[in-house]
């Protein structure tokens, strides 16, 4: 029996985004067609809400967004839910990041991401050319773009509402050491972590992930997880793939991610895999 979803949740990086951080017009068109047929379509991404507009085609529309790995949910400009990291945790993490010389971006709600100016030199050093072979081109380009245009090199920490931390290291050994350090900090101040590559880790409020975000969005639309499809490709998608009624992994996903899926797309994110999958599955 063919699964007919009432709603579809789509990851961005490695799923609807190609490795040059763009959503194709074909993908936009299939999303439009699905929504016109009465099926809801949502984005469930590790990206912050403010990052999305730059990577989607003009006129791109969905029914809602779950951002920062479940930290916030939006319908248009309306905030459906929003979690925030504590100021105590933020300050403790920045101090430890400085000790470890780990690249970090702190994402305030409604403002540019922050890296403190005193940490600028070692942060810049982490993205010096040439690109390490094991770093994905999409992640490398995103970091270059952040350094060039998107980070606010702040003199001091301002505000009290923060959606997440993003950490990056040019070597896998460095990021592993940092994750181990965060595990130790969790014993003092609880939080959750998620990875989407071998070179990064993100930090959110304890107990928050894409699945918890989907759960909150489904309540708003009076939908059951049994009627939901989700498509993803990386570790931060695992809670989402486990939660929904029908899970799909991208062809470009690692093998351990595919183990959580009911089906795997025939094409990669660079080959419009989501477009081809949804067109063949639903039309």
Automatic annotation (TrEMBL):
Regions annotated as coiled coil: 168-195
SUPFAM superfamilies associated with the record: HAD-like
Keywords recorded for this protein, A-Z: Coiled coil
CDD domains on file: HAD_Pase
Entry-linked Gene3D superfamilies: 3.30.1240.10, HAD superfamily/HAD-like (3.40.50.1000)
Pfam families: Hydrolase_3
PANTHER family recorded: 5-AMINO-6-(5-PHOSPHO-D-RIBITYLAMINO)URACIL PHOSPHATASE YCSE, PHOSPHOSERINE PHOSPHATASE
NCBIfam families recorded: Cof-subfamily (TIGR00099), HAD-SF-IIB (TIGR01484)
Protein name: Cof subfamily protein (Haloacid dehalogenase superfamily)
Organism whose genome encodes this protein: Metabacillus niabensis
């Amino acid at each position: 029996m063919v699964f007919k979803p009432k709603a579809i949740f789509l990851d961005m990086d490695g799923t609807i985004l190609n490795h040059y951080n763009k959503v194709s017009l074909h993908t936009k068109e299939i999303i439009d067609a699905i929504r016109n047929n009465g099926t809801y379509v949502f984005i469930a991404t590790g990206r912050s809400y403010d990052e999305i507009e730059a990577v989607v085609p003009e006129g791109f529309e969905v029914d809602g967004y779950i951002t920062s790995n479940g930290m916030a949910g939006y319908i248009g400009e309306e905030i459906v839910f929003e979690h925030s990291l504590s100021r105590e945790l933020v300050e403790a993490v920045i101090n430890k990041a400085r000790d470890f010389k780990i690249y970090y971006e702190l994402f305030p709600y409604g403002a540019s991401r922050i890296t403190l100016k005193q940490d600028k030199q070692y942060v810049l050093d982490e993205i010096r050319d040439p690109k390490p072979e094991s770093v994905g081109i999409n992640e490398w380009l995103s970091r270059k773009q952040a350094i060039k245009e998107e980070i606010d090199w702040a003199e001091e920490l301002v505000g009290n509402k923060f959606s997440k931390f993003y950490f990056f290291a040019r070597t896998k050994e460095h990021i592993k050491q940092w994750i181990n350090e965060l595990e130790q900090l969790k014993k003092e101040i609880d939080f959750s972590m998620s990875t989407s590559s071998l070179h990064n880790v993100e930090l959110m409020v304890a107990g928050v992930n894409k699945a918890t975000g989907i759960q909150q969005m489904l309540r708003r639309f009076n939908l059951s997880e049994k009627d939901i499809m989700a498509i993803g490709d990386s570790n931060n998608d695992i809670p989402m793939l486990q939660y929904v009624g029908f899970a799909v992994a991208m062809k470009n996903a690692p093998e351990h991610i595919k183990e959580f899926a009911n089906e795997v797309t025939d094409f990669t994110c660079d080959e419009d895999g989501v477009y081809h999958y949804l067109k063949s599955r639903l039309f």
